[in-house]
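Researcher: I'm preparing a figure for a lab meeting and need a structural model of a single chain. I don't have an experimental structure, so a prediction will have to do for now. The sequence is pasted below. Please return the structure as tokens so I can convert it later.
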Amino acid sequence: MDNFEFNEDENDDFDILGLVEKYEDAIKNAHATFFDLDDVENIIDYYFQMGRRDDALAVIDKYINQYPFSVELLTKKALFLYGQKRIDEALQNLEIAEIYEPSHTYIYFLRAEIYAYLSRYDEAIEILHYLLTIVQKIEIVDVYMQLCDIYEDIGNLDKVYECIVESLKIDPLDEEALNRLNYYIESTGNFEDNISLHKQMIDEHPFNYLAWYNLACTYRGIDDYENAAEAYEFAIAINDNEDYFFQELAELHYKNNAPQKALDVLKDMCELFEADDEVYFLQGKCNEALGKIKMARYCYRKAVHENPAMSEAYFRIGETYKNEGLWEQAYKAFQKASELEKEQYEFCLAMAEAALEIGEHEVAVDVCESAIDIFTNRFEAYFILGKIMSTYNDNTNARLVLESGIETCKSTIELKYALCAISFIENKLIEGETMLRCLLDEDYNKHDSLFDFCSDLESNIQIIKIISDFQFSK
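Model: Understood. Here is the structure written out token by token.
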């Protein structure tokens, strides 16, 4: 907290600069120039805002003896001393200031902040509750916000919420309180209880755009897509100067399988704001969902142009090439994504798959083995590694890999289907049929894993008949 603000309007900047120049000239030439208290305070404020805090403190020290009863100088000095962690001296200056002007509220604000820094929370809270009884209405919200800081520090979220609600009763349009309410709701997941609170604020102040925004986030939190989208639209209609309103609405549409609506929102957004990597990336995902693969790839490339470290965009570029069967290009994109984020499991698997498709057998094996080392309880790397070995007619080691995965992983049905596939590949037809019937009983929906492991089995008449008979019997 600080109380360093110029009293003058912006049009008076020349006078402030002239005042500072006059002061510096007096210091340089040792002139005995008189400055009244307002001039001194403005010089201090100027240095503070310019980041010249040592110079500001030097002015205070020079003139505090000339104006020993100035509470403003005493509190400014206390704030500087607190910033330097000279706590005892800061508190001493506040005690002196309180003697001269016991009703000066900033004394109590700063003392409460210092006590909170010292973890003397009960004393800080007591001071702030006293402040609530003496401050003017316009400062009550500030008191509640400082109380919020303390209650957050001690982890009392119920009190945080209580202070936010009380402050909004005083000023339903206060941006800090509304933002903190949104953060509280998102952190606690207490969505439903706050819908009526925001509706009440909106009833009283229909153009309260942050209340509309909070309401949108609250509906989003309970997966009420329609009402969330409508609330976002009201927030944007009232205030279209916040780019994140547009982006969150677009993301909401995308997640609810409405990619064209998302693109429409992003188009409106880009007419008002310059697109960044996140916007281009979202445009890419929407176009990809619409089947516009080349446009999606163009958007992802725009994203990595803006942010060359955006590994997820390189991954999506690889996926677009993969969908077109362009495995060489897909491999390069997956490789770049993996270089940027070495321990991303999905990137490892994609790179291994692409490496296998272009005949980079050793690379595919190395990537899968690395993925298994890092993510020991995930089945996919075992599945792909087994597939690689089987593709190169090493079914003995493929079985060992798959059996190891079955012992280790949480989800194993896919690996069991892969073992079943190997039985058919090796012409162990009775063994394969027995396994397949058991697996279909265990989880029919995962039977495509058989064909993911070996696409040639899709034309195996025996397998097709077993699956068809199973479906008919059900």
